[in-house]
Amino acid sequence: MNKKLIMIILGVALVCGGGAGAAVWFLAPKADAAEAAHGEDKTAKKKKKKEDEEEVGPLKYLTVDKVIVMLRRSPNEAVPHYLSADLVVATPVKLEKEAKEHLPLLRSVAVRTLSGLPMDKAQAMTIDEYAEALNKAFEAEYEKDEREQPFKEVMIGKLILE
């Protein structure tokens, strides 16, 4: 009986999570109008990004697997919510060893950043917003320690909200 109840609850949670994800996907504002308004800015950014890539050289991608955090609860919420993410770190080949040594720090900063999110905000965020928040947190951490980042950017490889 207990196993059936757990399976039913997990099934309902999965269906609700899928419905929430679909709602966010379909109700999110489309970027086409914004792109048309900022077309000139976008070409300048692409040009700068291409110059930066040429300066850095070839990139190597490292993974930070299974960053799992419990999200903050709302005052009227009794059920805990979790976020699981796999991060991908883009680093120049010449800085790969140093970046590997910094992976525990990256995990720690990611946990600190993501665990501060309430569930409603986490559900509303896009993958790009998660990546932007994490990159800002990493930049702030390295600036605080007055060190240079051994990686170019951090991307989201996988993200699960429950």
Cα radius of gyration in angstroms: 19 Å
Average pLDDT level? 80
Task: Name the assembly state.
Answer: single chain
Major beta sheet summary = 3 strands, antiparallel
Shape: elongated
Number of DSSP-assigned strands: 3
Q: Give the fraction of residues assigned to helices.
A: 55-70%
List the helices and strands and how they pair.
Blueprint: H1 2-27, H2 32-37, H3 39-56, E1 59-70, E2 82-92, H4 96-101, H5 103-115, H6 119-124, H7 127-144, E3 153-161
Antiparallel strand pairs: 1-2, 2-3
Could you write a compact summary of the structure shown?
The protein has helices at 2-27, 32-37, 39-56, 96-101, 103-115, 119-124, 127-144; strands spanning 59-70, 82-92, 153-161.
What would you note in describing this structure?
The protein is of the alpha+beta class. 57% of the residues lie in helices and 20% in strands. The protein has seven helices and three strands; from the N terminus they run αααββααααβ. It has helices at 2-27, 32-37, 39-56, 96-101, 103-115, 119-124, 127-144; strands at residues 59-70, 82-92, 153-161. It has a three-stranded antiparallel sheet with strand order 1-2-3. α5 packs across α7 (127-144). The protein is elongated and about 55 Å long. The two termini are 23 Å apart.
